[in-house]
Amino acid sequence: MLTQNKRISPILAPAVAIMNRLKYPQKFALISLCFAIPLATVMFFLISEMNDRIEFSEKEIIGDAYLRPLRKLLEHVPSARSLAHSYAKGQITLRPELIELQSIIDQDFQELLSAEKQYGKILNTSSRLNVLSENWKFLKNKTLSLEASDTDTLYGKVIGDIRALVSHAGDTSNLILDPDLDSYYLMDSVLLKLPEGVDLVSRTSFFAQSILERGSMTAEEKAELITLTGLVRSNSEATRAGLQVGFRNNPAQNLKPALEEPVQNAVAQTEELLKAIDAEILDAPQLTTTQESLEALTRKTLEKDFSLWDRTVAELDGLLRTRIDGFERKKRLVEVISVLMLALVGYLLVGFYRAVMNTVSGLQEASDAMIQGNLTGSVSLETRDELGPVVQSFNNIARGLVEAKEKYRGIFENAVEGIFQSTSDGKFISVNPAMAQILGYKNEDEMINNISAISNQLYVDPSRRMEFIRTMQEEGAVTKFESQAYRKRRHYDLDFRKGACRLRCAAQSTLLRREH
Question: What is this structure's pTM?
Answer without folding.
Answer: 0.70
